[in-house]
Amino acid sequence: MSGLDHLFENIVAGKIPSYKVYEDDLVYAFLDVNPLAPGHTLVIPKKKYETLDKVPDETAAAIGKVLPKIARAIMKATECKDYNILQNNGSIAHQVVPHVHFHIIPKPSKEQGLGVGWPSGKMDKEATEALLKKITSGL
Question: Origin, by domain of life (predicted)?
Fold first, then answer.
């Protein structure tokens, strides 16, 4: 267990100070202490869920409802029109704190904010159709 395991729970409980941007019964949002750009904000469920697939539908809907609202407020405050929403699940996918969180990262210039490289890759038609069938059968 690392020191990051309960970081966000301690922030929500007020045991660790934060710059609160938003709060309701299910969701808490605060400015990132190591921002990639001014206004970089984290939006989290108050209760700890390690990955997005473990978040109950009601909590996921609450996050989905407020993400655009918070993003609009950040973009207006920073006078920035471009931004990224980032959410990682699991250590291999670069999740550092094991508590679901969404980053809202303003992108004021090419130099500031999130830098993303996207490698290209293709699947053949047969593999794509087989994967699609597996995915849709699980919904």
Answer: Eukaryota
